[in-house]
Each structure stands twice: as C-alpha cells, then as structure tokens.
Amino acid sequence: MGMKAAESPSSMAAAKGSTSSAGTSFPTVETASVKIAADDFPASVFPLEMKRKRKLHFNKIEKRMMTEHGKDASQRVELRERIITAATEAFTSKGIKSITMDDIAAALGISKRTLYEVFSDKESLLKECILKAQADRDKYLQKVFEQSHNVLEVILAVFQKSIEMFHQTNKRFFEDIKKYPKVYEMMKNRQDSDSMKTMSFFKTGVEQGIFRSDVNFAIVNLLVREQFDVLLNTDICNEYSFIEVYESIMFTYIRGISTEKGARVLEDFIQEYRKNRIED
Description:
Layout: H1 9-16, H2 48-94, H3 101-108, H4 112-118, H5 122-147, H6 151-167, H7 171-176, H8 181-207, H9 217-232, H10 236-239, H11 242-257, H12 260-276
C-alpha cells in the first residue's frame, strides 16, 4: 500500500529523454530551448533540407547586416564631405579664426557632438579642407596639361584658376592659417614640392622654345614666392586691389622669362583674359 506504483518506461523516457537503438540521446522538452548548432546532431534529427534552410536564413541575416553597415559607412563618408565643403566655404570667405566648430555644425544642421565624431578638432578639419583643395587643383592641372600645346598655356590656366580662388578668399584666411602650425607646415612643404614641379615645367618650356635658356629659374621662382608673401603682409592692397597686384607680379614675371614665341602666347592670353576678367 505504501509503495509507489512503478514508473512506466514511457514516463521515464519523458523525464530523461528516450534513447534510439544506436544509443543516441534525443533532446527533451527541457533542453529544446537551449541554442545548439544543428551540426551537433545527426541528420535524422535535423534533415539536410532543414540545415539548408537554416544556412540560407543566416546568410540573409549576414547579408542584411553587411548592407546596413555599408549604408552607415556611405552615410559617414557623405557627411564627412559635406562638413569639408561647408568648412572650406566658411574659412575662405570669413577667415579661419572667426569660424567656430559651433558655426559649422549649425550651418550643416548637425549637433556639435556629431561634428566632433568626424573631426576631433578645428585644426584637423582645416587640414582636410586644405588637402581637398590641393587634390582638386591637382586634378584640374592634370586635365589642363593633357589639353594644352605648351607649358605656358598650363601656367596661364593655373594663374587664371588662382585668380578665381583669390576672388573667393578673404585675405584673413592667409593671415589666420599661420596660427595653425601643423597645417601651415604642411602647406609650406607642399609649396616646396610644387616649386620642384615648376622647375620641371620651366625646363620643358625651354625645350619648347617658350622660355629663355639664359634664365636662372630657381632664383626667379624664389623671388615670385617671396613677392607673394610680401603682398600678403603689406598695405599695398589698401591702395590697389589684391588681384591687380597679383596680375602685375605674374605677368611681369612671365614676360621676363619668355622668348618672342612665348611673349606672343602671353599677349594673346592677356588680351582674352582682360576681356573676361572678373572685376572686384
């Protein structure tokens, strides 16, 4: 009377899990909720078709995650480009010192936190603005070089592009940039690199009969660079426009190194240029 009824084999199986003839233990209700890879069990438990479907399912999830990650990366790149464009416009039109990171964030309609997630500080942003401008100029120079007949045409095209840039740039930009040592040093290094390329241009111009062969181009190039620095640090632009002074320097410089052939190319350019010149 006091003894419990013997448990049936079926109830024991329910408690412990039934066993196949091969001795393989099947998952019970209690273990079914545990996440175990399908490959841990024999094909009789997870048929090949089920395995295939599960693999397809996980592949879709992985692909969706990669797509979403790609979108995030693309959006971040787009935001970065927008920031550089907005900052470049602000720095060149109003000077660097007067523009804050708050101003740039507000202009873009983003939070300052978002801006700092992309650029850690103002100088790193300024650096990227300068690098972008240099890259754009390099592309333009390459395009002009491929379409020109001689190096003087290239120099004059770059001169004209520089005039357009100066029209869009506040003089304070050139004054302010010296207050950012890393960026200023980067620009000076690039200027040195450009000078070496300019010397190569002069050599080609001599070979083309455009420039005189009796000129020390290293000295001339150095003088032009120094004159430009003087131009930025004197009051001459209070009496004459920056563009007028810059033109006088460049045209006098090119006339002095040109042969008769080069002088004709220059005069044709000046006549056409002055017809279409952007006035202050």
